[in-house]
Structure formats: C-alpha cells, structure tokens
Amino acid sequence: MSATDAAGGAEHQQAGPVSPRRRRGRWGLWVGWSLVALGVLLLVGAALLVRDALAAGGALESAMAEVPAAEEALRAGDVETASAILADVQPLTATARSSTDGPLWALAAHLPVVGQDVRAYAASAATVDDLATDVLPPLTQILAVVEGDAITITDGAVDLAPLEEAAPLTARAAAAFDDIDARHAQVDRSALHAEVAEPYDRLVAATDELRPLVRTTDRVTTLGPAMLGADGPRRYLVLALNNAELRAAGGITGALAVLTVDDGRVALERQASTADVPPFAEPVLPLDPGVEQLYSDRVGRFVQDTTLTPDFPTAAALSAEMWERAQGEQVDGVVATDPVALSYLLESTGPVDVAGTTVDSTTVVRTLLSDSYAQLEPGPATDEFFGTVASSVLSAFLGGGADPATALDAVERAADEHRLMLWSAHADEQESLAGTVVAGDIDTADRAARSVGVFLNDGTGGKMGYHLDTAVRHTGSRCTADGRVDTFAADLTSTAPADAATSLPWYVTGGGISGVEPGVTRTFVVLYPPRGQTVTDVRRDDRSAPGQPGTVGDRAAVSVMVDLAPGQTTTLTFATTSPADDDAPDPSPGLLDVWSTPTARTAGLQTVEVPVCG
C-alpha cells in the first residue's frame, strides 16, 4: 500500500460515517439544484414554445390571409390564380407546422389547464398545412380537368381518360382527411379556452365543409370509369319516376329502359312498359318487417311500387330482381330519375321533338305530368309517351350536343334534390356509393343516421300528385337533458280545380277505385325520426293526428293519412329528438339533413341549421 493510500485510508477512518443530518443536507442541496435546473428548463421550454408559437402564429396569419383568395379563385374556375396563391401559401403553412411540432410541444400537450390549447394549436397548424399541400392542389388540378374541355361527350361516348387521370389526385386528397380527422379527434373541444376555441372551431367547420366535396370527388373519379364500362360492358335498368302519382322515393315507376355502357359509350338498348314486369304473387326478395308494416308487401311485388320505400338501395334491388325474373336479364345497376331532372338536362340540350311534340326545359314537366293525361288514352299509350320523352332527352344529352358546364350543373342539381339516384349491383361499388346524394340510402348510410324524413305516398290511385303543393319546414330547436329536440311542419295544399271530379280524367282522379271520392287527394305522409328515436307530438292543424306506426331502419316512424279537397290546405307538425351523445356523423356540427319526397315543384333534400347541444 502506498503512503498516499495509507494517508487516505487513515483520513477516511478518522472522518467516520456521514451523519443522517449531513446526508439530508446533501440531498436537500441536490434537490434544490435540481429544482433550479428544472425551473430553468421550464423557462427555456416556455420561451422556446413562445418563440415557436409566435413563428407559427405569424406564418398561419399570413397563410390564412391568402387562403380565401385561393378559395374564391377555385369557385370562379380560375385555376392559374389559385395555383399561384397556393404556391405562396405552402411555405408559410410548412413553417407553421414545423414550429409546432417536436418534443416540447408533445410534452406541453399534456400540461394541465393549457394542454388541450397547445394540442389544438398544433393540430390547426398541421391541418392547414395538409389542406394547402395535399388537398387544395389536387382539387385545383381536378378543376382544370372539369372546368376545361377535357371531359367530353361525343357521339354517345364519354371520354374516360380525364377521370382516370384525376383518380390518383383525388385519392391523395381524400387520404389527407384521414390524418386530419385523427388529429382533431385528439382535441377535447370542451377543454379549450375561448381564445383558442373560436379560431379552432372555424377551422374544423371549414374542413367539415370541404370533406364531403373531396370524398365525393374521389368516389366519382374512382367509380366513374368502372361504372361507365372502362373494364367491360355494363347494363343498367332506368326507372322513369312519375311525380303525378307520388311514391316516397319520388314517384311511381311509369316506364323503364335499359342502357348499355362500354368504354364510355352509352346506348339505349330498349324501352319497356311496366306491363313487361307483371305483378308477383310474393315479394321477390325478403322485406324488412317494418317496410312491410308501413308500405305493405306491394313494395316487393309490383315494380310500380318498389319506390313506396324512400330507401333507394331497397327499391333498386327489388326492381333489378323483378326485371331479371320477368325478362331473364341481369343488370349491373339501377338508375332512377324524374321529369324535373329531365327539365334540367333540357337546359343543356335545348328543345327535343318527340312524336310531333316539342318539349323544352319549361314545358316537359307539365307535358308529362298533366297534358299527356288529357290528350292520350290511359295505360300503354301514356307509358310509351313517358318513356319516349325520357329516352329522347337522354339520347340528346349523351349525343354530344349538351353544353358541358350546363350539363354538369344539371346533373349536380338533380342529384342534390334526390331526383337522380344510382345503385350498383356490385357490392364494392355500392359500398363506395354509400352516403352520397345519389345513393338515397336513408335506411343504412351513416350520414343519414340523424336525418329526419317526411315522405309522401299517393293513396288516391290516380295522378293527383301534380296538383299537390308541399313544403317541409324546420320550425325550431331546443337543447334538453335528453338531447336536441327539433320541431317541423309539413304543409300540404291541393291546387286541383274546384270541379276536379268532373273536369279531370277519371284516371287522374282515380275514379273512386281506391275508395277515395273523385277530386279528393289522399296522401300517406310518413314521418321518419333519427335512428333509434321516435316521432312525438304529431298534430294536424293543432289537433292530435293518429297514424300507423312502423319501425324501419331502427326508426320508429309513423304514417298519417291526409285527405284534401280541391283548394284545401293542411299542416302536420311533429317533433324528434337527437341525443347529444350519439356518435353518428352529422353533415356538419350545427346542420341537419331533412329528407322528403321530391315532387313536381319541391326538392327532396334540404339542410337546416340547428344548435349544437352537448
């Protein structure tokens, strides 16, 4: 052992063990320095967060100042301006995102009191960057295709190449919303301070408004080519719905046609009468007990009555099965439209001559739903005329003579009013169609879960629907402990002439064959609450209005019979409840879809503002 070691050992022996008091002193000193160090780290972290927040805030403020101009340019179809603005915005949103991303922000998101504010701030920066980088640029490129002359209809053929080229772009934009939705799901809106909550809510509302547009565009570019025969020939059954004899989905099937599509080329294969699909002794497919309870088994036995249910996938599947059994021919899908939709198409094609009669956008509805019954014999003659007009308009539209922009507006308007509906017999395609305005799937679509419905079925056995004016109104909402209670009114007015019993043909008045006095219009008004709920306080002109109950699609619906003499008006009122804790998606917070039967003068879908009850 060295001298030094010996000295050290001696010194250690002399010092003896450290006393508890000295140990506590050293521990206290260590804790003190640790707290100081932690305080310094927190101060530095806070300073860095403030620095990053200021950088992000400045970048976001500059970016958001430019975004409205980009949106306005997109609405105006000015692709060049929109692209230029986005090119300037993207570096700003990238700065905002990078300034609110990293370990410090991740830790700060877990702090008490302000953690959710930090999370919302960072989520907002990332969302704006996603919109500027992954959503709006593809939409701009797609707009360049749609607004230009890229999509053309020539000699009955749709050029599918632009849709196929746009598909990857729309897929990219749609995928971005998966990340955006996941990010927003991590933010507890109730924990935000007002200074953060207000701009965060505006951003969420903007993304909610944009999401359905992006996802619908994605569906169109993905499904469009396949459904238009890009992968092989397709055959579709077309139902020409007649609003003069109302059915919940729009009208009785007055005529049928078969379209074939091959690589974008559309051809009218043949027309058919409802007489070509005779009634069946039993429903051709199993019916939901609620459907049969509310609408009878006629839904599954008569092709004219498949649209007694407002759920178009149900009506379409039944119609396709009936067609196959009667004609021995399978179809790839079913399309339904009505005379009002034809009037929109005629705005893009101009007048069409049919069997010596000229119809245009201003006359086709009256010609089909009123004049034809005064001039033609009932039965096959009117059915043939109805089908010929529909086929002639469709042929003119597909023949390349339609103005592209007006044609696109016509299709969009018809779809938005539930006058144009589409069902695919291919399960994967039908799954993609679910929840879109053309699907008409009130019984199954997630989006339709909280919707309210007011549907009309004729009980006259005639064509008095043309003389029925309707209006569905949202009259109020209030928040309760059980959720939001919404109240509605449905106004019905008979515009039939006072002498309708004698001045109108017997097959328009029904001639009393259904037990209804000629001139009287009988309508079964079917009220649908949100899923899992009931219709309450049903009244007609301030008197209790009993009806036929029936549960369909998990909705406790009720059907009320209304008889109207010529010139008579009546109002049905009712209430529904939407639970605050229901996770079913709304169109957007504060909005409610109200479905109704599209008539000769009233659209079949409206979206109303309602309070957000939490």
Short description:
The chain has 614 residues and is α+β, with helices and mostly antiparallel strands.
- Could you estimate the helical fraction of the residues in percent? 40-55%
Radius of gyration: 32 Å
Tell me how many strands there are: 20
In spatial order, strands of the major sheet run 16-17-13-10-19-20
Judging from the principal axes of the Cα atoms, what is the shape?
globular
Determine the number of helices (DSSP H or I, runs of at least 4 residues).
16
Task: Please state the average pLDDT score.
Answer: 83
> Which stretches of 5+ consecutive residues score pLDDT under 50?
1-52
Sheet-strand content, in percent, reads 15-25%
Distance between the termini: 80 Å
Q: Which structural class matches the secondary elements?
A: alpha+beta
Report the biggest beta sheet as strand number plus sense, adding barrel if it closes: 6 strands, mixed
Description:
It contains 16 helices and 20 strands. The protein has helices at residues 3-15, 20-75, 79-99, 103-108, 115-147, 161-185, 194-227, 289-295, 312-327, 339-349, 364-375, 380-398, 404-416, 427-433, 500-503, 506-509, and strands spanning 153-154, 157-158, 234-242, 252-262, 265-272, 333-337, 352-354, 357-359, 420-424, 452-458, 468-480, 483-494, 521-528, 536-540, 543-544, 548-552, 555-564, 569-578, 591-596, 605-609. It has a six-stranded mixed sheet with strand order 16-17-13-10-19-20, with helices on one face. It has a five-stranded mixed sheet with strand order 5-4-3-6-9, sandwiched between helices. A hairpin with a 2-residue loop joins strand 14 and strand 15. The relative contact order is 0.08. Mean pLDDT is 83; it is low at 1-52.
